[in-house]
Amino acid sequence: MHQIIMNLCSNAVHAMPQGGVLGIALVRVRFGAPVAFSHGALGNGDFVRLTVKDTGIGIPADVLERIFNPFFTTRRAGEGTGLGLSLVDGIVREYGGGIDVQTAPGEGTRFDVYLPVTDAPPASHEHGRESLPHGDGQVVLLVDDEDTLVTLGEEVLAELGYEPVGFRSSIAAWEALLTEPNRFDVVITDQTMPEPTGLALAARIRTLRPGLPVILYSGFSNTTLERDAREEGVLAVLRKPLRQADIAEALARAFQPASSH
User: Is the pTM here over 0.85, yes or no?
Assistant: First the structure.
């Protein structure tokens, strides 16, 4: 839910460059028959409806058709990869939900996210979280050019027992490393960033501190990226959307004795 809310709110803020009103609401609804939305369909039953609306510029019809496509974005270079709404769509689909989008140019946009109501206790989820490997206060340098993902990443890392230090720019992260090269115990970086990319940052780190573990993540991982990452000494390549378990396991590997890697 946190990822859904943060990504929708981030998009709403970008849609109001001159300011405006951001509204969030949560209600329980019941459908007596199947219903179709602009993006997905639901059967009858009880659902929770999360509404995020803004008074921004609205979404043109030709753009509306593509907003949930991975990597589609209307932002300028360096302002994000366009994975936000794709991540929201993936999470909602995973839980058997649907999304309805209402928009008008110049009047704003409303996202209604529907998720099925369940009485099942979250005990197994909590048990899984507790069983994940945790850190002991090690300092993690986190790099991503999307504010939302930095904020979420910092919270996940703190929950896992690490001290996160987030940067919205790979240049700023590199300058921090140059200033205090021994401050950080591990680096987690996005690949798709301008000046430099995650791999280019890893190459610089390798010359500055060869033993500093680097974990790379990307929305589009392939054999070429994984090969290039290995050549730069990257410890692991993770796939977006990031799962807490994947992060925890990669960090645990980073702090294993060298003979155990």
Answer: no
